[in-house]
Amino acid sequence: MSHVTPICINVVFVCITALCTMRSQWVLARTDKGQMYRTNRVANRYKLNKKLRKIQAKLGDDPENISMRNAVSRAKAAADAENDDNILEQKRQLGKKVLYGQVIQLRHQFTNKYIHVSTTKTSDTESNNMAVELKEENSKHALFRLMPRYKVKAEGDVVQVDDQVVLESMKSPGSFLHVSKPLLGHGSVYNKSHELNVSVQQSGFTINRKYKPVAGDETKLQFGDIIRFYHKEMEAYLVAEGLFDDEICEDVHMRLRPINQSIPKTMSPSTSAITYWQIERQEGPVSGGVLKWEQQCKIIHMCTRKYMTVKDGQVTLTSDHLDPATVFRLHPVIRESDDIPPDSYCRMEHVVTGQWLHGGSETYKKKQLDGDDNIQSMAALKWTTAEFRVIETIEEMQYDDAFTIQKVDEELVRIFNHMAGMVPFVQKLIADKKEGHALNAKMAHDAESALQELSSFMVVNGHPIKNRQKLLRNLRIVELLIKLLQIPFRGTPDQFHMTKLFVETYHVMYVYLMGDSRKNELYIAKYIDFFQSQFELREVWE
Fold first, then answer.
1. Which helix (H) or strand (E) holds 17?
2. 2.170.150.40, 2.40.420.20, 2.80.10.50, 3.90.550.10: which CATH number matches 13-42+93-209?
3. SS3 364
4. Residue 331 three-state SS
5. What is the pLDDT of residues 358-407, one digit of tens each?
6. What are the boundaries of each domain within the chain?
7. Is 465 left (phi over 0), alpha (psi -120 to 50) or beta?
8. Residue 410 scores a pLDDT above 90
9. Whole-model pTM?
10. Most buried residue, 84, 218, 358, 394, by CB count within 10 Å?
């Protein structure tokens, strides 16, 4: 009798793949390597949070209403209590088996949002179907009944790994999550993907388990974790610079960040996203689990989404995930167990060559100079005083080549994912305009809304957040916005729409400059010459 594995509550990360003639990519995707969702067996309660949102909307219309403010305070306290109850209930359900017929929610791991069925918006590709959206809040729109695709299983049976299932909307009974046959059109960022929508026709999905955690796994390094590599002897981070779906600006190198007792921030780990790396299984990103010492793995740079590799003795990046030269091993400096706890010291071995990563003494020469030869130009400004060293490979392991494995805080990962999720829309907008496409009113409204969201995300409770602002540097969003502003618009059919977009673009950069970050100011000062070329200065005579 073959062994089958049941699906357990809130433990299993599932990769849902559409059972079509081809393996479909969802519009909700971050990459083309599958979608990761967490199952919630017991649906979160949401009515008090819904009440809070309604009262807040009324307060927005009448902000001076004292009684309404008091009502918002009371509603917020009740909503917070409801959220706490939801967290406790999900913990209580942890590990219980999922049964067919139960109502679940699907939360997207990358955005931390729930799949919602829209009752007002139709599908972009199939007008007879309704749209599906990602939203943060809980509601009846986010509830689905998990049912077997075939009659070999029935309600009450345990859901098992590799089962084929259908998901029925609780908001619209008789409607199911469905994958469109046509690809999304040219107007979509995901134009090579199929759309997920809601239809009376069923689409089957296969559930693939990422991994099943056990008690204590949170204290161990796992595949998929976002980490930093800090060279203890050099006091430097392993970094690279660039942006996914774009060129690599700076190859892999060491960025010195020496600890200085008189500068408190140097005592804490770096919050710069160029130091972020992700551990992936050699077999691919779908499977997870706990990483062991000396286990073969791949290392992905988060900003560029490229794999670290070694070519001709040089540590570099590649987009070829099938390249055997992308495989590394982490060796312990002090081995206490097979598991890797955070803040462990490791040495890094390149599997194909058998060579070891070594922090070199030579200065790394940046491909992208911070300034140019014209010292009169603002582009000559240096926005950082950091020093750089090369990263090399050597035949013999060196005792002092020990890297500290620092796990990135969950909040930093969350804001990075949020900001990175905004990049494709800007890239698509620039590409469309370069191809000569004109914006209509709807496209312009969507673009303006996205830029407004980008601005508001950098401000929390009226205060600019430096860790969010610096992501515009790390993800090279500043450069994307400059490219957007360089698009000719005078005399074009969409001049009116483009003018409004440019206003929002300048507002994004204004919010980026709020606060006291000298680096932010110097970084954008490189483009002052360009900004001045965009305005006609007239001298007023009195």
1. strand 13-18
2. 2.80.10.50
3. coil
4. strand
5. 999 999 988 765 545 455 566 666 778 889 999 999 999 998 899 999 99
6. 13-42+93-209, 217-407, 412-533
7. beta
8. yes
9. 0.86
10. 358
